[in-house]
Design brief:
This protein is α/β, with parallel strands linked by helices and 407 residues long. The protein contains twelve helices and 15 strands. The strands form four sheets. It has a five-stranded mixed barrel. It is globular. Bound molecules: iron/sulfur cluster.
Length: 407
């Protein structure tokens, strides 16, 4: 979400006449888009702000602004802590020093072939560990017509793939008149000429419906990739996390998804070291990951976020060394699983949408979201290319072009 908002902010500033600078030292304006989902992310932005202080002091003409989830309702406190910051504005808001009355659609003039499109902001779930609902507020869906118009315009500007974004994308539409849902939106977008692929994230196991699974299975442009955070393999921990589903429900959901969408790539998120997590409860998470064999696992160490239910009601009682050890066990397990899953693609030909070039190699993704690198002398940007996979790793694939399809 922050990445999508940074891109939109950059487009907005470009339209207001700004040009991007090559370094902080060259810039007349620096905006930090902050994340506070974990303590480490918050530390990062605070360290960055402290590091920028001497630059700001030596160049008083430099404007410094902070947005994102660090900017909560206590802006006065932030102003006191960081008096050299010129502007604070909340996530999703416009920079306050620009007249935004004529803004209209804030879209990049020359977008990447694959872009993010936020469709729902905020979250109503209040998982006990999570700061997001406090910083981004309650759920607000964008109307279907607005999203469709935006995607059509993006396609007109060269976009081939959209990833629909929401903190809980499955609850899209419940706050709109006629209560359209994500499945309805996917049907509308699937009909847009020139759009090649559609993805969405992040799903919530309690909200993923049979109707949505069905649409992913049958709509040709919707990619076989689902992000379904489980967070823990223990139903007791899930209850303490206020996730509103059980481990049994999660297993059943994955079974249903895999039987209806063959070849689907599944990713999940896990938190280790949640308050009171015992060795047995962690082992249940480990066993779930071993049994379900995800394509990707994002694992994080629990850190209390001030103001959340977990920070108020539970002791952060799992020692850091234990948390680290659990994190590394999950990482090692997932390294083995991802190596095996990806190695099955060796010698196969996959369809890649080329998103960019780095160090002389083209970079793109398969429909299932696998990152692929290959070399080719022609301009492949934005094209669908068939690549024969010659090397695999847990994180990416490498290959060479079989045939190119100018689309
Ligand atoms: S659903 Fe996601 S964003 Fe919402 S409270 Fe839970 S973890 Fe946070």
């Amino acid at each position: 979400m922050n990445k999508a908002e940074s891109e939109r902010l950059a487009s907005y500033l470009e339209q207001a006449g700004y040009q991007s600078a090559t370094s902080a030292e060259d810039a007349e304006l620096i905006i930090l888009n902050s994340c506070v989902v974990r303590q480490s992310a918050e530390n990062k932005v605070i360290n960055k702000l402290n590091a920028l202080k001497p630059l700001k002091r030596s160049r008083p003409g430099l404007s410094l602004a902070v947005t994102g989830c660090l900017v909560n309702s206590e802006i006065d406190q932030l102003r006191q802590n960081f008096p050299y910051v010129d502007y604070f504005f909340k996530p999703g808001e416009y920079p306050p020093w620009i007249d935004n009355t004529q803004s209209g659609l804030i879209l990049p003039q020359h977008p990447s072939p694959a872009v993010f499109v936020p469709i729902i902001q905020g979250c109503d779930n209040f998982c006990s560990y999570c700061i997001v609902p406090y910083r981004r507020g309650r759920e607000r869906s964008r109307p279907v017509e607005e999203i469709v118009a935006e995607v059509k315009e993006l396609v007109r500007r060269g976009v081939k793939e959209v990833t629909l974004l929401g903190q809980n994308v499955d609850s899209y539409g419940h706050d709109l008149p006629d209560t359209p849902d994500l499945a309805d939106l996917l049907c509308e977008l699937n009909g847009i000429d020139g759009l090649v692929r559609i993805r969405f994230l992040t799903s919530h196991p309690k909200d993923m419906s049979a109707k949505l699974i069905e649409k992913v299975a049958c709509l040709g442009k919707v990619c076989e990739e689902i992000s379904l955070p489980v967070q823990s393999g223990s139903s007791d921990i899930l209850r303490a996390m206020r996730r509103d589903y059980t481990v049994e429900h999660y297993y059943q959901l994955v079974t249903d998804i895999r039987s209806r969408i063959p070849g689907v790539a599944l990713s999940t998120d896990v938190i280790v070291g949640f308050p009171s997590e015992t060795e047995e409860q962690f082992q249940a998470t480990f066993d779930l990951l071993s049994a379900l064999r995800f394509d990707t696992v994002h694992v994080a160490i629990y850190s209390p976020r001030p103001g959340t239910v977990a920070a108020r009601e539970f002791m952060d009682d799992v020692p850091l060394a234990t948390k680290r050890e659990r994190l590394s066990r999950v990482e090692r397990l997932q390294g083995v699983i991802a190596t095996e899953i990806n190695s099955r693609l060796l010698g196969k030909t996959v369809e890649v949408l080329v998103e960019g070039e780095k160090k002389g190699r083209w970079r793109g993704r398969t429909r299932s979201g696998k990152l692929v690198f290959f070399s080719d002398n022609s301009n492949c940007l934005g094209r669908l290319v068939r690549v024969r996979i010659e090397k695999t790793s847990p994180w990416a694939l490498q290959g060479s072009v079989k045939t190119s399809n100018p689309d």
